Amino acid sequence: MTGVYGKDKVRLLKVHKDTKVHRVDDMTIRCLLSGSSFTTSYTEASNKAVVATDSVKNTCYILAKNSKVVDTLELFSAEIANHFLNTYSWVEGAHVTIIRHRWARMVIDGKPHNHSFWRDGDETRQVDINVKRGPNGRRTIELKSAIKDLLVLKTTGSSFEDFVRDEYTTLPEVKDRILSTSVDANWEFNLAPVQTENLLSTLGQIPFNNIFDSVRDVTCKTFAEDESASVQATLYKMAATSIANWKWIERVSYALPNKHFFPVDLSYFRGTKNLQEHADVYQPLADPSGLITATIARSPGTSARL
Ligand SMILES: O=c1[nH]c(=O)c2[nH]c(=O)[nH]c2[nH]1
Question: Hey, which residues are catalytic here?
Answer without folding.
Answer: 7, 53, 260
